[in-house]
Amino acid sequence: MPIQRVKDYLAQLSFKLEVIEFQEDTHTSELAAKALGVEAAQIAKSLLFVGKEEGQAALVVTCGDMKVDQKKLKQELGYKTKFANPEQVMEITGFPPGGVCPFALRKPITIFLDTSMQRFPIVYAAAGTPHSAVPVTVEQLIQATGGSLRNLAC
Q1: What gap in Å lies between CA 108 and CA 121, rounded to an integer?
Q2: How does the average pLDDT of the chain come out, rounded?
Q3: CATH number for the domain running over 2-150
Q4: Within 13 A of 19's CA, how many CA atoms are on the CB side?
Q5: Predicted confidence band at 1 (pLDDT cuts at 50, 70, 90)?
Q6: Model's pTM, two decimal places?
Q7: Any idea where the domains of the chain sit in the sequence?
């Protein structure tokens, strides 16, 4: 189960993060925000981008009210990307679309954390299902993902 993989990963960290599970669907930033009682911008959405070559993939985590500037992403990666399709999302991350957690990924890939999330003391990332979330600081996200902070949103 993807959510158990997330919980097992969290148990290994040097700091404590708790998974919140919901009965209602939280697969979009708006639905997750409603379930949590926060604004959509506080949802840390994880978006998978893939290139043309095998192994070219990057996960960008940004605020729920932002879009990824693909020109900036291309400058960072050195290759053009497109949104991954649902099958690629599941294959690469091990999570279904709408539930992609930015850590405990199935395959190691490049992870960028957008600076837009620094507006909030806490953001909420999906925890492996479209019915879960984990409250986390940006600093904790950096530590949990090994990702690097970049300005990739527009």
Answers
A1: 27
A2: 96
A3: 3.90.960.10
A4: 22
A5: confident
A6: 0.95
A7: 2-150
